[in-house]
Amino acid sequence: MDFTISPALDQLRRQIAAFVEERLLPLERDPASYDAHENIAEPLLARLRAEARAAGLWCLQLPESRGGRGVGLLGMAVCYEEMNRSIFGPVVFNSAAPDDGNMMVLNKLGSEAQKERWLDPIARGEVRSAFAMTEPHPGGGSDPAMISTMAQRVGDRYVVTGRKWFITGAGVAKHFILVARTAEGAKNAHTALLFHADQPGWRIERRIPIMGPEEHGGHCELVFEGLEIPAENVLLAEGKGMRVTQTRLAPARLTHCMRWLGLAKRCVEIATDYAARREGFGVRLADRESVQLMLGDLAMRIEVGRLLVAKAAWALDRGERAQSEISMAKIQVANVLHDAADRAIQINGARGYSKDTALEWIYRYARQARLVDGADEVHRMLINRHLSTEGRSFWSWPVGGAA
């Protein structure tokens, strides 16, 4: 792999970094910048989104033909790190979950008519979206084959009954991608369908309280009581819901990692700055071996995460599935984000535990990283499945020009 980036991509990265430094970081210290759920307040967000779009820092994940920058996944890895130096960053640039993953899957699998109706309004920042797959027990969670929400075909429509929960952003979303069962069994039994929030036959049961700060729209429990979805709103094809799911989750897991790396680096930055200034018993914290070991270890582990993300992004850009590469990146980055926040708080002492820095916000947010888009244990099982199947070739080198 060649780790050099083009001058144009570096210029874009620098523009994003300057926007974050000048426009976003100062806002984190102002309580008026936050809504009731500890995310950026909507009126402020609208102004900043307009600025970012005017500056050309908008929808990096989409091709230029759909209003994006078309930088590819490797380019996104470079830029998303810079975006998430601020806790407000990704949503300002229209690169936050769940819209980020939803836009990518709609762009890849949607028909032109579906892109115009369901994708373009998200890309323009006019609406938000949600991906409704996870269900309460005994429905589907980490094992999507257990999905029990039913979409029964009746003429030219599907009638949906069932329940979903922990659906990120559902409280403000207008465009939904719903994964439901359309047949018995495990193979070709699920379908992805598109619906609008204003359609009757479904409701939000509750916004589920969580440990950390929330995305706009929260994490909601949804009940479907006869929602009717026209057959033209099937994404890809009936029975291809699992393919839609994997097409969405593969890059979305990776973009999570890209953003988390930015937050982990921010934690190290805050800790390093404080350690350089704070003295105890006549010695700067930065001169204490214990602090040096903590920061050096974090720097190494973050770089390991960056390399894993870069390799997985490179593979996806080449058209590979990169399942084990994405799982490795997801485990590594989720854990180093949590540890970076924890150790940065430890170095900052009471200051780190307070709201004087972003550390306590990041710490509470970070715990979900080991759960969302598949728990660590599920990804380790997947890696082992590839290892068992591939044997020694699991560690093979890709050969240029090979078929």
Give a written overview of the molecule.
The strands form three sheets. The protein has a four-stranded mixed sheet with strand order 1-4-5-8. A four-stranded antiparallel sheet has the order 2-3-7-6, with no helix packed on it. A two-stranded antiparallel ribbon has the order 9-10. The chain has helices at residues 7-28, 42-54, 72-83, 89-92, 99-109, 112-123, 241-277, 289-317, 323-348, 350-353, 359-366, 376-390, and strands spanning 129-132, 150-154, 157-168, 175-181, 190-196, 202-207, 219-230, 234-235, 279-280, 283-284. It is built from twelve helices and ten strands. By secondary structure, the protein is an alpha+beta fold. The longest helix is centred in the middle third of the chain and has 37 residues, at 241-277.
Contiguous uncertain segments of 5+ residues? none
For the secondary structure, the number of strands is: 10
Instruction: Provide the structure class.
Output: alpha+beta
What is the helix fraction of residues, given as a range? Answer: 40-55%
Work out the helix count.
12
